[in-house]
User: Which sequence fits this backbone?
């Protein structure tokens, strides 16, 4: 997620994950010992570990044993309660949604708000050459079990105002849009907010907490937010904005300026390095490895137990059994 920005700032990065674009591609969960062996085989020397939530099941089975300063980035906390006990295995937990930081803090986990962002390659210069011929667009998945409100909301919006809906690549659509409509699963500030603004469109999102108004100023850098599930209200805001194209363009431009000034991957990468520098200086990981390991083991097993109980689909039976075994073994 931040590998490119970190490399651009002069850091050596070795990525591990399930996609072909990673330096080391894995096809199943692994232990700390397996991870370190895989990295050592390449000749890479690691100083720190950054484990980013990829919306999947946990791939590192015993992060509490990583002999390096470690940070866990929890993004989809709202639909993954296992993230919280799993966070006990790390020296620091970063949380994408501000309101969920307290859930980690209340458990005694060192945690900070670390908002989402836009990769800087989302260049608007090329996009601006395109004609913005889509008044309002939405790009995203439809019918996901974690977001039953989406399809009826979009349907109701379309009944009141034209809306282009697409599932797939967002940039070609957003670059042609005057307004990008956002609808989230749990009133979170999701990636679509940053993606829309990065393509030069004005963002129309729902009113929520999670730091939205600290990230962007409503009415100036984004359109006035609508009440969640209020399709009529959202459509009215869009129609009013489109009726004043000059003001709409000013909001989109201000949003883009705010994004480049405060919310790019380069800015987040610099923040991450600062956090790791502090962990390296304080040698927090040595304390993690020297005390309460049994407690951390128990909490991580508890995380796997929570996950197993949530994997109720017949297609995920093997995964459920795997994590259930991990939850009970010692």
Assistant:
């Amino acid at each position: 997620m931040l590998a490119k920005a970190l490399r651009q700032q002069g850091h050596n990065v070795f990525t591990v994950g399930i996609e072909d674009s990673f330096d080391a591609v894995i096809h199943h969960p692994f232990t700390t010992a397996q991870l370190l062996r895989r990295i050592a085989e390449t000749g890479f020397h690691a100083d720190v570990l950054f484990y980013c939530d990829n919306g999947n099941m946990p791939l590192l089975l015993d992060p509490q044993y990583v002999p390096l300063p470690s940070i866990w980035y929890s993004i989809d906390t709202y639909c993954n309660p296992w993230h919280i006990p799993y966070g006990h295995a790390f020296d620091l937990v970063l949380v994408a949604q501000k309101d969920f930081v307290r859930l980690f803090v209340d458990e005694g986990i060192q945690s900070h708000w670390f908002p989402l962002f836009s990769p800087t390659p989302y260049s608007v210069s090329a996009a601006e050459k395109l004609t913005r011929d889509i008044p309002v667009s939405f790009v995203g998945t439809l019918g996901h079990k974690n977001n039953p409100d989406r399809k009826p909301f979009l349907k109701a919006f379309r009944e009141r105002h034209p809306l282009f809906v697409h599932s797939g690549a967002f940039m070609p659509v957003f670059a042609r849009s005057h307004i990008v409509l956002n609808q989230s699963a749990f009133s979170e500030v999701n990636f679509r907010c940053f993606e829309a603004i990065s393509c030069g469109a004005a963002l129309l999102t729902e009113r929520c907490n999670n730091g939205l108004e600290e990230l962007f100023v409503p009415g100036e850098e984004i359109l006035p937010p609508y009440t969640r599930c209020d399709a009529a209200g959202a459509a009215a805001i869009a129609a009013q904005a489109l009726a004043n194209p000059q003001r709409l363009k000013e909001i989109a431009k201000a949003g883009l300026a705010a994004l480049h000034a405060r919310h790019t991957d380069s800015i987040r990468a610099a923040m991450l390095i600062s956090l790791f520098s502090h962990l390296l200086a304080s040698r927090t990981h040595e304390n993690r490895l020297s005390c309460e390991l049994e407690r951390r083991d128990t909490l991580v097993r508890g995380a796997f137990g929570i996950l197993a109980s949530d994997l109720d689909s017949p297609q995920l039976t093997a995964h459920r059994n795997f994590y259930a075994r991990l939850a009970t073994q010692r």
About this structure: Residues 245-262 form the longest helix (18 residues). Strands lie at 16-17, 24-25, 49-52, 70-74, 92-95, 111-113, 134-139, 164-166, 177-181, 202-204. The mean pLDDT is 94.
